[in-house]
Amino acid sequence: PATDARLARFRDNGRRLFQSRIGQLELSCASCHDDNWGKRLGGSVIPQAHPTGYPLYRLEWQTVGSLQRRLRNCMIGVRAEPFAFGAAELVDLELHLTERARGLLIETPAVRP
Ligand code: HEC
């Protein structure tokens, strides 16, 4: 993760967004990815939501896609209005995820179902 002190408030906002309940299902990112990773949601295992594989090839997309595309999918999944591609909120979430994955190896290009 980037260490520039000027990023702190954006990273803090990303952490706040990660923990805020959204959508008609009223779930936060953390409800699934911190509190219930490893369990099943329908046919999928809930991962820890690390950004280390992006951009990656997703079978469901039949192409390579960005981390923002993945985050928007999760927002749509809880029936929230997804942030637009390039929105400041998505960038803040990406910053938080990068901080949260500190120390993990980069694995891109990765593959996901
Ligand atoms: C209802 C549970 C749920 C919520 C809430 C949720 N996700 Fe997810 N998320 C999933 C599942 C399930 C997958 C894996 C989907 C698959 O493999 O098809 C996933 C995948 C991801 C991945 C990809 C991880 C990888 O290894 O490729 C990231 C990153 C992610 N979510 C971030 C978020 C963020 C940020 C939020 C909040 C805006 C969020 N998710 C909200 C269930 C959730």
Could you tell me the number of beta strands? 5
Main beta sheet strand tally, sense and closure: 3 strands, mixed
Q: Pairing-aware structural class of the strands and helices?
A: alpha+beta
Tell me which ligands are bound. heme C
Kindly report the average pLDDT value: 97
Look at the structure and give the CATH class: Mainly Alpha
For the record, the CATH architecture stands as Orthogonal Bundle
Task: Write out key terms for the chains shown.
Cytochrome Bc1 Complex, Chain D, domain 2, binds heme C
Question: What does the model show?
Answer:
This protein is α+β, with helices and mostly antiparallel strands and 113 residues long. It has one domain (5-112): Cytochrome c-like domain (Cytochrome Bc1 Complex, Chain D, domain 2, Orthogonal Bundle). The radius of gyration is 14 Å and the shape is globular. The model has no long low-confidence stretch (mean pLDDT 97). It is built from four helices and five strands. Residues 18, 27, 29, 31-33, 41, 44, 46-47, 49-51, 53, 70-71, 74-75, 77-78, 93, 97, 112-113 line the site of heme C. Heme C binds at residues 18, 27, 29, 31-33, 41, 44, 46-47, 49-51, 53, 70-71, 74-75, 77-78, 93, 97, 112-113.
